[in-house]
Specification:
This protein has 606 residues and is mainly beta.
């Protein structure tokens, strides 16, 4: 059986990004990995995955094992949000260039033939093509906190618009709580903070070279000022359109409120016609992962696979070195009997069996949360098991042989281990032959081969060790490598020894996440549950302290449709700000430990 674990185990490319007010000093380069905004399609019986800032694409025959391919021709690899669609016997590609006309590209075989260009006639950002059953071609775009999602019909031969741009819908964070900015939809800004941040941004942008300002559409100070106050304010970004047709209805998906937040997710509007009118679906946001090891589930695509099952892939947040530091996630999705689009993210960064249906409990439980850690040197050992991708252990040196070890407390039946490497303000020399490109800042995608090499060992007694996985000579660079032992291996101590890292950086491990069967008894049901409505768009869910490893808060607009979830560790309450005004809400709190999951009772929020 095939298994995977989010974020997807891909060789994410390193980005050199010039920051004019960097923590490393004026004009320093930040180096970190990034991939986001994934388009996933099935083309000639092969799955194709195109994320931003990848300088190529991935293919798979099973949605589990992925191979990377460089483009065979010059392509706009620095343009964000690549859109890919199957039209006839060709694969079409386009990407974002806000203030320049954007071209379309097509090929009959991306693996053997270069893409051919169709010169663009208008600019767009976050594009999405859609071919309807009647052969008519439509196009959607938008990425702004000032403008809506647009749609238009295109001439399929020239790719020119047949109609003026039409507004599909805009954000409304007064009635849709999930569209509000901020961590857990709570903005930390006040008016004075917004003013100070905007003025600082204006000063920085006006100091930038003219070509950078022009590339971003900031020709004069007034344009810079208008944009700065908009960006630093509390208006959400509405972006990342993707259209799916199902049973005669059109589901126009969009990302909200901003990629740097834990609540980055996808909403959906529904219509009987490709250009509207669209109304918000009852189940919103339909893709949403605010808790757990990796957060964020916005801006992506929805795929119908070879078997007629649906999947959703989207962007996951790290946003530590930079707001654009991100990864790619994949989840089971589908349409219920009422035609509502859903996405299963209840245990969205735990091992997933490809052939299991959505919303079944995971086969293996998390065994490593909160366990003791020791290391050869360094700081932050406790972060290796805190289930937070934004914190990590860092070794004192960059020498080969630095190690970190998790003690599970007793020997357990281990089935899978995810090893997560972090980037911590890497300092590296820009290659002499690097060709810089201008996006928001100067940028360079490092396409040189890199290796992340390590040795993973296990022990029962902490003295005698055996090899679980040896990648000491591997030629791969996988920051979220996934080690599968489906038949199980009994182990108490799990030790990772780092052999080699790109740029000779120090070892940074954000998680050694161990999954398997802990034995013992299931946790008790959550008790003392209190659910309070806080205004129109928020609810506070609390429960009494218990011995569970963690809790999963589920909710939805019907007791049979608890499609949303928020995984919580180490506390007994959680504010949820993703409600829709005047919509009914039903809530359930599940407990889980190393032995399994205990389902709670369903309550109606009043």
């Amino acid at each position: 059986m095939n298994y995977y674990c989010n974020p997807l185990n891909l060789p994410y490319k390193y980005q050199f990004v010039k920051h004019n007010n960097s923590m490393q000093g004026e004009g320093a380069w930040r180096v970190y990995r990034e991939a986001a905004d994934p388009s996933l399609v099935l083309f000639k019986d092969v799955y194709y995955l195109f994320p931003s800032m990848t300088a190529g694409f991935f293919t798979s025959t099973d949605l589990c094992n992925w191979d990377f391919h460089e483009f065979l021709s010059d392509m706009p690899i620095y343009d964000y949000a690549p859109d890919v669609r199957v039209i006839g016997d060709c694969l079409y590609f386009c990407a974002s260039k806000r203030d320049e006309n954007c071209s379309f590209y097509f090929t009959k075989d991306p693996l053997k033939e270069p893409f051919e260009e169709i010169s663009g006639t208008f600019p767009f950002w976050d594009p999405n093509l859609f071919l309807d059953d009647d052969g008519r071609l439509y196009f959607y775009w938008g990425c702004s906190n000032m403008t809506p999602i647009y749609g238009v019909e295109l001439n399929p031969k020239t790719m020119k618009p047949l109609t003026p741009p039409l507004e599909m819908f805009d954000s409304d964070n007064k009635t849709r709580g999930y569209e509000r900015v901020g961590y857990d939809h709570v903005s930390s800004k006040n008016r004075e903070e917004i003013k100070a941040m905007a003025e600082a941004m204006i000063a920085q942008m006006m100091q930038a070279p003219e070509e950078i300002r022009l590339a971003n559409g900031f020709g004069d100070e007034e344009a810079v000022r208008r944009t700065a106050y908009s960006v630093m304010g509390d208006d959400p970004y509405i972006e990342g359109a993707w259209l799916t047709k199902h049973n005669g209805l059109y589901y126009l998906q969009y990302a909200i409120p901003g990629t740097e937040y834990n609540v980055y997710g996808d909403g959906v509007f529904v219509s009987k016609a490709p250009l509207g009118p669209y109304i918000p679906a009852e189940n919103n946001p339909y893709s949403y992962k605010p808790g757990g090891f990796m957060t964020g589930a916005g801006h992506g695509s929805t795929l119908e696979d070879k078997n007629g099952d649906f999947w959703h892939t989207s962007t996951m947040q790290i946003s530590y070195n930079d707001a654009m530091e991100r990864r790619v996630g994949l989840w089971k999705a589908g349409f219920d009997s009422d035609g509502e689009l859903y996405c299963d993210q209840r245990y969205g960064d735990w091992p997933v069996a490809l052939n299991a249906p959505a919303y079944v409990n995971p086969e293996w439980m998390l065994l490593s949360y909160g366990k003791s850690v020791r290391a050869s040197s360094g700081e932050g050992m406790m972060y290796v098991t805190d289930e937070n991708a934004r914190t990590w252990w860092t070794s004192d040196t960059a020498r080969a042989g630095e190690w970190v070890e998790v003690d599970l407390g007793k020997a357990m039946d281990v089935r899978a281990i995810q090893i997560n490497f972090a980037d911590d303000y890497i300092e590296a020399e820009l290659p002499e032959d690097a060709e810089l490109h201008i996006t928001y800042d100067e940028r360079y995608i490092d396409q040189r081969s890199k290796c992340t090499r390590w040795l993973l060992e296990g022990s029962i007694n902490g003295k005698d060790y055996f090899v679980i996985e040896n990648k000491s000579e591997a030629n791969t660079n996988l920051p979220h490598d996934f080690v599968l032992r489906e038949s199980g291996t009994f182990v108490r101590y799990v030790r990772l020894t780092v052999k080699e890292l790109p740029y000779h950086s120090r070892a940074c491990i954000s998680g050694i996440r161990v999954f398997g069967n802990g034995g013992g008894v299931l946790p008790e049901k959550a008790h003392g549950i209190v659910i309070k409505r806080v205004g129109d768009l928020n609810m506070e869910v609390s429960w009494q302290q218990d011995d569970a490893t963690g809790h999963n808060i589920l909710w939805g607009h019907s007791p049979e449709k608890l499609y949303h979830s928020y995984m919580v560790f180490g506390k007994c309450s959680q504010n949820i700000g993703a409600l829709m005004k005047n919509a009914p809400v039903y809530v359930r709190v599940d407990t889980f430990n190393e032995s399994g999951i205990m389902q709670g009772e369903v309550y109606e929020l009043r």
